[in-house]
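Notebook entry, structure prediction.
Reason for the run: the old model in the group folder had no record of what sequence produced it. Starting over properly, with the input documented here first.
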Amino acid sequence: MCRTILVAFSVLGLVGCVTNPQEAVIAARPSSLPVKNLTNFSESLRCMDRLFLNYGVEGFIITSAGIPDETGSVAAGTKDMLISAIARMSGKSEAFTFVDYDAEQTDVHDLQGLLGFTDDFDIPDYYIRGAITQLDEGVLNRATSASVNYRSDGFVDDEEDIGGSGIIDLGAGFSYAETVSVVSIDLNMGYLSSRKILSGASAQNSIAVAERTIDGGLSGTISKVGLNFNVALNRGEGLHQAVRTLVDLSTIEVLGRLTEVPYWKCLQIEHTNPAVIAETREWFEDMDDDERVEVVQYFLESSGYYAGDVTGELDQQTKDAIGRYQVANDLIADARINFDLYASLLNDDLLFDHFGASKVAKAKPSSAEPAAIDQADLELDLEADSADDGSFELNSELTIWATPSQDAHVYCYYVDTNGRVSRIFPNRFQSNSYLPGGSTVQVPGDEAGFDIHLDHISEEEQIACVASSRELALRLPEAMKQQDLTAIPVATIDDVIDAYRALSPDDLVEARLDVTVR
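New structure, fully documented this time:
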């Protein structure tokens, strides 16, 4: 019988002449815990780090004199905000290294004058400049108030039957006020050696901060390429947190444009957005013919369609690979390099692996050949909360935890008592198959809308997971691309594993867990 998968979507007061030292320590202890500073784009910064890692972007050295407030009204440490944003985007990828150079840090310059420049000093390739260019306070003021009063003369009887007149006087009031301010930031990037500003690596963003007195709330909205980013702000932080949010967003844009990687994925913007199409078309048109061939060869190699060398020559092997990709992705199969092919490759999730095209980072290309990860270096640990003998109780819920030893794409399948196979990860609630090395995914997740309910005694069920440094699921045979949590038309789970192994014979590991229900 099929197992059930349920789907649901410091001032201290001194008293007397003697103070207990122990009590003084307690009194001086801060009442508030430290808080990690997060913005609505914190996850986007981490996403950019993974994106740079997957596309082989590394070794960029940048600096900045800061982001001054040209309005004179917002006193915020924007340079340190910028450094923090860059650091979050370079934690694993090491895409960017920030060299701190500030003429106002006289103490640091004096010390460096004593030491001199050592061999470890890296001269920046690029610099970021910008400013808080606009602050319009109170651009919109709205206030609404209303009141209701009720007055009536009444007749009151008491227990002694003494009549008297009384007055009923009731009142209710309501007031609402909203003030909207607008803050804007401009960021640009330039070559340090020539001080020329890169025309395609800039960002201009504004945030509208609304303060509402009805509930003491504060919120922000950033309009971008037809979308609105709704930003949650703390009332105590006000415009300063709004500025940090703008710095995060603008840094994502300028560094994404500099390296020409699809940064819009980390902002949850569809690649079909007209602004995204226009930008990617500019990238494509700025490349010469040899560069286009080289980029396409890198992309096709990373997605498994091309096994030759990256030469920049449009030979027959490259044309054949282009044709196969075009057929598989519903493009006109003419084996030619055009914008439609480039846009499809650039936005294809198949590129989210360690074979990513470092040539995408046009501003600082790498000629190193991408090296495959040794299968022996990648391991996959699969665990479940079972009894000491490995069995599970009847009518319990099955939960598994999968942990790859290295960054990998993980796919997990469930085999029921009838041998039917269904994919349980990734799923509609946990859609990203990519897991950083050493991280663990729980399936089903705490927020997932389904359970695996063990409602039958059985010794024939199984969980099987595979892991690879490449994204493989999109290249499976069409029959195996069934919706999650539904049966796949295969005879056994081995058929699924074999299909993955055929796509990546040298870079695939598997882990299985027998599910015995007592």
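Summary: The longest strand covers residues 126-157.
The old model has been moved to the deprecated folder.
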